[in-house]
Amino acid sequence: LSVLQQVEMDSERSLQFEREHAKMFELLGNKTGKRVDRNNVWEYFDVVTCMRAHNYSLPDWYTDALYREMSEVARFYWVQRFASTSAIVRLEIGVFLKVLRDHLLTIVNGSKTLLQRTFQVSIQHLMAYSAHDTDVCYLLAAFGVYDQQSIPYSAAVVIELLGPEPPAPRSEYRLRLVYKKGYLDNEGTYLQFGACTEQPADRGCPLDDVLNYLAPLLLDPDQFFSECQVEQRPYVPDPLKFLRSPTPFSCVSSQRTTYTVYVAVACILLFLLCLVGVTVGLCIKRTSTTEILRREIGVFLHSFVQHMNAIVHASVDGTPEINRTNFSTSPTMAYSAHDTTVTSLLSGLGLYDNQTIEYSAAVVLELLSPDKVTSASDHVLRVLYKRSWHDETGTYLQFPSCPGRPAADGCPLTRVLEQIRPLLVPPDQFTQICSVESANSSHVGFTLRYSPFRTFALISFTLCATFVVVSLVVFLIRKCRRQKRMLQDDEQVVFVRFDHQS
């Protein structure tokens, strides 16, 4: 896949576009002190975009005209790398598309979809997938609706299956696609599939037409691994065969001396020390202090508290307004997050157990209210934690502000809000706290602060790496010198032959 992408990045079209914007690349290179070209310009555009979003101070040489040009260039090479050919799209999204097709056909046939080999979902259901902007790009391109624009933050693609109660003939079903261009797009827009460009988008497209359109892009998992397999080059020995076979170097003895064992044991012990030191430094960085948690999760918790208050103090018509958007009094809000964000959230709620966050973990916050509410204290907040995709039911956790109370009963909302209050950070305050202005206005500056544990981890890793390298070098030098003296004493000449395997 990377080979196909690089072919498009090195095509004449890509090179010509780079030449047309040579002055911009030269300016960025001079001001940043780094080589900026078509392969990495998106990194600098991402940094500038984030700084603009958070009102960071920007250098004097940065202008709106430069930002517009960077946006155009980054978007062009984004399309070139990720969506310029069907071969790239097929390898990127083909396996998912096959799973999606099989899922749709299972519904149409009236059978329950089997997930994880044990868990069945009903015929009418909702499947949600979190994805990066690149994944959204591949999906839109596969359906023939990608407009070659950047994928905005918090974009969403909704695929709707319309038709009679299953089972029914496939010809009676249609697919419809809604695209929400970011969190500011409250309703989204219907887009018409590439297979039905002449039909209105809000009417959708016949299921069979869409599946036939996708057919050339579908991939079995086995087929994917087969096509992406990297063949061994004839001039490079196979690493597994090389390790299993006796060493071909006559300079190295097969006998394990005391020095060899010493180096091996020292390397293992020091590696474990490095691993512990770095792990301690990384863990403490994320969860140890209130200030770190405030920066990591404070803005989200502030929005969460606003959301809870809006529901609790909802007006009589039951339409609390949040960020100029009206919700019902019993909404479901879904957020996609990285494992680091889940760590910060659990730590902020006082529930983190210092364990690694597994793939596809989920934190569910449930607001429970009686039929008749007289005050805010009548509301109860409950948290359910699913540790991974194979944890089908999850576990209720209890907040520290409600010790001794069963986790399934939750905790009064007022207690929880009082517990997390020290962590709340309004967005404008966050901007002031994290705003960094470089002393040199011609460069973008970043301030890094390390805890003592983080410093210890870095120093330990450096010392370990240095010791291991020096020990191995000394060991090899001594071994080769010893063998050389033995050869001179015997007045023999040893020839080393390398047999290349194809």
Automatic annotation (TrEMBL):
Cell membrane in keyword set: no
Reaction equation(s) it catalyzes: 3-O-[beta-D-GlcA-(1->3)-beta-D-Gal-(1->3)-beta-D-Gal-(1->4)-beta-D-2-O-P-Xyl]-L-seryl-[protein] + H2O = 3-O-(beta-D-GlcA-(1->3)-beta-D-Gal-(1->3)-beta-D-Gal-(1->4)-beta-D-Xyl)-L-seryl-[protein] + phosphate
InterPro entries: Acid_Pase_AS, His_Pase_clade-2, His_PPase_superfam, Histidine_acid_phosphatase
UniProt keywords, alphabetically: Hydrolase, Membrane, Transmembrane, Transmembrane helix
UniProt superkingdom: Eukaryota
GO molecular function per UniProt: phosphatase activity
Transmembrane annotation, as ranges: 259-284, 456-477
Record Gene3D superfamilies: Phosphoglycerate mutase-like
One of the Pfam families matching this protein, by short name: His_Phos_2
Family per similarity comment: Belongs to the histidine acid phosphatase family.
PANTHER family: 2-PHOSPHOXYLOSE PHOSPHATASE 1 (PTHR11567:SF110), ACID PHOSPHATASE-RELATED (PTHR11567)
The protein, known as: 2-phosphoxylose phosphatase 1
